[in-house]
Every structure is written in C-alpha cells, then in structure tokens.
Design brief:
By secondary structure, this protein is of the alpha/beta class. Helix content is 30%, strand content 10%. The protein has 16 helices and 10 strands. The chain is globular. The relative contact order is 0.17. One of its GO terms (molecular function) is glycosyltransferase activity. Its main location: Golgi. Keywords: Glycosyltransferase, Golgi apparatus, Signal, Signal-anchor, Transferase, Transmembrane. This is Exostosin GT47 domain-containing protein.
Length: 410
C-alpha cells in the first residue's frame, strides 16, 4: 500500500475510533507519581507580598488585553493564590514567598508584549520587598518564586541572541522561576525552574467543543507563520528554518492542511485532526501545544531540546510525536508510518480529563489544573536546605550587575 493510501486508511480508522478514543481513557502516570491527580494543599504554605498596584492591577486596568495573551499566567496565578488554601497571612510559617509583578503587561498597539521595561519593573519590586520585609534578605530570594512567562523567561528579551547575551536577571539567580520557556542547556533556563504551559483561554476553548464522535478527517493540521518577514527578512533564522521547511515541503501535499490563515473554525478544525504540528517559533513552545492536548489532537513536537511543561507529571513521549528539526522534510513518511494501535493509544491518553486540566489556568481553579501542578512542583522542592539561608551580613547577589539600563529606577 502506497503512502497516500496508507494515510487515507489511517484517517478512516481513526474516524471510526473517535468515539472510543474520546471515552475509553488510560490512566496517566508521570515520573513523579500520580501528581496529575495530586492535591498540594497541606504540603506547603505561600505568603503573597502586597505590592503597590502599579506593579500589577493598574497595568491590567490600563490594558485589559493582558488578560488574554499567551503570557497571562502571571496574572491568573496571582488571583489564584489570593483565594487559595495554600496562602498564609503569617509570613513566619511560609515555605515560599510570591511577588505579584506583571512583567509582560506592556503591549504594543498590535498586542505583542514588550520586555524592555521588565528588568526595571522586577528590580523595583524586589527592592520594595527587601526594604519592607526581612524575608528576601535572609535568603536573597532562594525561598521566593517568580512567574516570568516571557519568550525567554527572566532573560527578558524576545530575540534569542539578545536574551542569551543578557542572561537571567542577576537578582533572580537564587529564586525559583516559573516560566513558559524551556530549552535544555540554555542560559535562559535556570536550573530548578518549573516549566509551565502558555496561557490559553479556557472558557473560550470550551465554547468551541465539538461532539466527541466527530470524525477526525484531517490528517495533519497547522495554522500560523512559516516566515517572520518583519523580524527575519531573509527567512533562515525564524524557527531555525523548521517552519519554512514545513511549508516548502508540504504546501501542496493533500495530507497536510497547513496555512497562514487563522479561520474562525480553528478550534473545531483541531478537533477534526489526527496530528497537530507544534513547531518552535522564536522560542521552542507555542500555545498550540495546549490547544492540541485540550482538543485531543496528537501534538507533533518539532523543537530540538525542548523542556516540556510539567514533564514530571505528563508522559509527553507517550502522547506526542517528536520530530527532529532536520527531519522535517520526512514528516509525511514519519507520520504515515506510525502504527494504528500507537495512534489510538495516544488518543486514549489524550482523552483523559486530567491531562487536559493540567494544561489550563481556569477561573475559578479546578482540581489538578495548571495552578495545582505549579504548587506540586514547589512542594517537591521542600524542605529548603540550610544553604538557602545566608549568615548575618552575607551577600550572594550583586545588585549593581547587569546592563546599565536595568539599573534605572522604575
């Protein structure tokens, strides 16, 4: 049987199995145990600093678009903690300290977050808490966590070369970072960071759900940029050429439903697809990863050395397909060669409600959601070792380190 015929057979088989795949789920276990269904309450306490509203609420009041872009996890994590059973009003009993500063809520007219003020905002917030409470100074942030969901986390730049040149903001080098960026052996991924999914609007996604028996009649689906001509006019640097390779090799392949158009049926289309491409962009991850899992579309992850969200809980190797960037020209052969029983098992795992819930930041929070997976990650770092606490007069961080512009008051 030739490749197109085999692919068509897979399409028909998966369409017939759609009901089974949606209803018959398999139990999910990660390397850290059953943390998808775990409850972190009682295992840690978090103290939430009260900051002037210029660091958070005023930013959202100024531009409500901050509530819906892919970096909005920093806002919803703050709101979640304020009403969570994890929160303590007594800092003396806290295991972790959280500083609610929204470093991505500075948007262009087109809605793209700008990171240029972020180092100054973060530095100013840390100066504020270090002067008003004793807890930062006794550890210089080693028992503090910060949500930094920029493209390259606490490197605070959207261009990789600049991000690498900057490195992680010096004042955050002892803190735990909760960030969407995850790439192995990268200067912007601090050891011990908790990698989270980008924000995707849960309520909006829920309104686009199709009946579970809907046939998956699309073999491969992708909507998005293939070339970022505005920032990469020569076309070789964006996505390290992987997206360009997808387009050049498969734009005329009938098995591939790919386009730069973003139709109003985008969410519905993903629920009709067997495979959803999740290639890197400027950073290794994208919201497509969340959308694919939520909509039961097998994610085809094209991003070498990616560190995936909640990898100690979610068995990514079992639910996804990993394709090396250099192997993109062979995508059709790779995907049509996957045995039918492997596809169906991936679909059964993706149908598990715990899997979908772990990728979302719903309001109000729900058991096992992304908020709880973050708390599970923090709980697994306890108890803090004695090396966390500095001796009287001891200093570990250099407050004058970093680009000169970062040192300006905010």
């Amino acid at each position: 049987m030739g490749t197109p015929a085999l692919a068509l057979a897979l399409l028909l088989a998966c369409a017939r199995a759609a009901v089974v795949a949606a209803q018959d789920t398999e139990r999910i276990e990660g390397s850290a145990g059953d943390v998808l269904e775990d409850d972190p309450v009682g295992r840690l306490k978090v103290y939430v600093y009260e900051l002037p509203t210029k660091y958070n609420k005023k930013m959202v009041a100024k531009d409500s678009r901050c509530l819906s872009h892919m970096f909005a996890a920093e806002i919803f994590m703050h709101r979640f903690l304020l009403s969570s059973a994890i929160r303590t009003l007594n800092p003396e009993e806290a295991d972790w300290f959280y500083t609610p500063v929204y470093t991505t809520c500075d948007l262009t007219p087109w809605g793209h977050p700008l990171p240029f003020k972020s180092p100054r905002i973060m530095r100013s917030a840390i100066q504020f808490i270090s002067k008003r409470w004793p807890y930062w100074n006794r550890t210089e942030g080693a028992d503090h966590f910060f949500v930094v969901p920029h493209d390259f986390g606490a490197c605070f730049h959207y261009q990789e070369e600049k991000a690498i040149e900057r490195g992680v903001l010096p004042l955050l080098r002892r803190a735990t970072l909760v960030q969407t960026f995850g790439q192995k052996d990268h200067v912007c991924l601090k050891e011990g960071s908790i990698t989270i999914p980008p924000y995707a609007p849960p309520q909006k996604m829920k309104t686009h759900l199709v009946p579970p028996e809907t046939p998956r009649s699309i073999f491969v689906y992708f909507r998005g940029l293939f070339y970022d001509t505005a920032n990469d006019p020569e076309g070789g640097y964006y996505a390290r050429g992987a997206r360009a390779s997808v387009w050049e090799n498969f734009k005329n392949n009938p098995l591939f439903d790919i386009s730069t158009d973003h139709p109003p049926t985008y969410y519905e289309d993903m629920q009709r697809a067997i495979f959803c491409l999740c290639p890197l962009g400027w950073a290794p991850w994208s919201p497509r990863l969340v959308e694919a899992v939520v909509f039961g579309c097998i994610p085809v992850i094209i991003a070498d050395d990616i560190v995936l969200p909640f990898a100690d809980a979610i068995p990514w190797e079992e639910i996804g397909v990993f394709v090396a960037e250099d192997d993109v020209p062979k995508l059709d052969t790779i995907l049509t060669s996957i045995p039918m029983e492997v596809i169906l098992r991936k679909q059964r795992l993706l149908a598990n409600p715990s899997m979908k819930q772990a990728m979302l930041f719903p309001q109000p929070a729900q058991p096992g959601d992304a908020f709880h997976q973050i708390l599970n990650g923090l709980a697994r770092k306890l108890p803090h070792g004695q090396d966390v606490f500095l001796k009287p007069g001891q200093k570990a961080l250099n407050w004058t380190e970093g680009p000169r512009g970062d040192l300006k008051p905010w």
